[in-house]
Design goal:
46% of the residues lie in helices and 15% in strands. By secondary structure, it is of the alpha/beta class. The protein has a seven-stranded parallel beta sheet with strand order 3-2-1-4-5-6-7, sandwiched between helices. Helix 3 crosses helix 4 and helix 9 runs parallel beside helix 13. The protein is globular, with a radius of gyration of 22 Å. 44% of the residues are buried.
């Protein structure tokens, strides 16, 4: 049995695809959350999954959560523990060592955000987790290179597994596009969209100043922002520049693919990116993309062929890229067509799950060899 431990919720397409992919290969999974009591929506729809909740929404509850998890790992005879996100990595490693779990895999979902935010303890514990794990799975070559260079983690310990997507679920016709546009009052507008948590590292603030200039060239332009978070800084900037009526905060949406299809252009202005899931999803539904030249994005977007790359934190580059693609609809169309074919070939969910399974087998094989050596 494989146990997946996450700090928060499993209510994402990544965990859904992973569950079904492992199940199809005959691998039983136990999903355990530190802080989320409820089953993910996708699990409720299929009648439930093997799920546990550690009741540890605050860090003061972690000691008890470690003991509870260790008991659960022993009881369920878990062979592989795979952790997701920072806190789950710490709790999971300590519990797994107490329970003598044969293999511990840490999944590093971030790139250099801790360094950018000045979290020295976070950086130190990231490195500690990498040294304690039997393997670290990362979603891009960029993350692997960062860990080798900045954290001095052994290259042989790091496995690159790009995220995989169930493209059969990306069904969006013209009616979905127009439904979203009508709902949000965007029927006749040129819609520039951005999808992601409202957080400074995601870079949405760099879209506001260009918007003031874009209005002069594209009178019907609207900026559609999807995602939860603190929008106060973006609202203030939009109000100060007099473009507040051009910015639509749509919050978190479950019909994200339809929302992406409703966009004429998606801009991803992130300052740091371990992979770029939003880009793959937008490209898969046929929406042309502009993205910053950072991290794992370079493994997804080919400049001028499948998307448009710009430097991070560069408002002038944002402005010029949007204007160029607005003025050249044929280029937008060709890039979108190229991108749709490319991501569907490169990032199918089957490829991700197969690599995960191979990683499990390789780690378990090493443990078996060590055990035989000391018998």
């Amino acid at each position: 049995m494989v146990c997946h431990l996450c700090t928060t919720t499993f209510d994402t397409s990544y965990f859904k695809n992973l569950w079904f992919g492992l199940s199809a290969r005959g691998i039983r999974s136990l999903y355990v959350s530190l802080s989320e009591y409820s089953l993910p929506h996708w699990a409720q729809e299929i009648g439930g999954i093997d799920y546990a909740y550690l009741d540890a929404a605050s860090r003061k509850k972690y000691p008890r959560a470690i003991l509870k998890l260790a008991w659960l790992l022993r009881k369920r005879r878990v062979k592989v523990l795979q952790t997701h996100l920072y806190d789950a990595g710490i709790v999971g490693i300590l519990a797994a060592r107490m329970a003598n779990v044969p293999v511990v895999i840490v999944t590093r979902h971030h790139l250099d955000e801790p360094q950018l935010l000045g979290g020295k303890l976070h950086v130190a514990l990231d490195r500690w987790m990498a040294t304690q794990a039997d393997c670290v799975i990362v979603p891009s070559i960029a993350v692997r290179q960062h860990m080798i260079k900045s954290e001095r983690v052994q290259e042989k310990k790091i496995e690159v597994v790009h995220y995989g997507f169930d493209f059969s679920s990306f069904r969006n016709g013209p009616e979905d596009r127009w439904r979203v546009r009508e709902e949000l009052g965007l029927q006749d507008d040129f819609v520039v969209g951005c999808v992601g948590r409202l957080f400074k590292n995601k870079g949405q603030i760099y879209l506001i100043a260009p918007l003031k200039h874009l209005v002069q060239r594209i009178p019907n332009i609207k900026l559609l922002l999807l995602g939860d978070g603190d929008k106060s800084a973006i609202e203030a900037a939009a109000h100060n520049l007099g473009v507040q009526d051009r910015v639509i905060f749509a919050g978190y949406r479950r019909d994200i693919f339809s929302c992406m299809a409703a966009m004429d252009l998606l801009v991803h202005p992130s300052l740091s990116e371990s992979f770029g899931q939003v880009l793959v999803e937008a490209m898969a539904v046929g929406t042309p993309v502009i993205a910053t030249r950072v991290g794992g994005i370079l493994e997804i977007v080919k400049h001028g062929e499948t998307g448009w790359l710009i430097p991070p934190a560069d408002e002038q580059a944002v402005l010029q890229a949007i204007l160029y693609l607005y003025d050249n609809p044929a280029v937008r169309k060709q890039m979108a067509e190229n991108a749709q074919k490319n991501v569907r070939a490169l990032f199918p969910v089957e490829k991700m799950v197969d690599k995960y399974v191979n990683c499990y087998k390789k780690c378990l094989s090493k443990v078996s060899k060590v055990s035989r050596r000391y018998c």
